[in-house]
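HUMAN: Please help interpret these tokens:
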Amino acid sequence: MLTIRKEKYLAIKLRKQNKSYDEINKILGISKSTLAGWLKNDPSSKKAKLFLNSKSNKKVAERIQKFVEENRKRHENRRKDIRNEAIKQFEILQKDHLFIAGTMLYWAEGDNKLGNPFRLTNTDPRMISLYIKYLIKILNISEKEIRPAIILYPDLLERECIKFWSKITGVNSSQFYKTQFIKGKHPTKRLSHGICMINCNNRPTKQKILAWIDLLSKTL
């Protein structure tokens, strides 16, 4: 049977070989709490800890990099699938007046940057009404997925403006995001009902619209 002194000597020796407490425990059968007490102030143990941490950090970094790469490939494949689907649908829908009007409207007034939210902003109720029809009839987006928001100058009454845009969009006022108020140099601005922003939390659909815009630009 090994004496405590011999066990401690062997533990220090193994620690100098950059063995972890788990590894030393398996070799010598010494509890990790005992090893911690023996080795916490030993210089070789501190070096081993730094070595093991750097080794562990390297493995973590490698796993993160692998995850990022796999995630990037999944997104690329998903975008390809969405574009291929958009191409097939474009062949069918390109003669539909609402499809052309809605796609052109988003091209002109929507947020066209892929990383930005899926939204369209305008002051003309006719355009907003047309865009809502496009979302529902062409893109099969339900009214519950449509989240309007309005931007107002201080001279406009929030309740009346929400009521107005709720009627135009057919979306319940409870689904409206918090109203934003513009504070400029002038206390009042004459916009009858403010600015309406239509938001949809559906990035794949936005990717499809952007693909349609690209296809439409090459067709016209």
About this structure: DSSP finds eight helices and four strands in the chain. The chain has a mean pLDDT of 85.
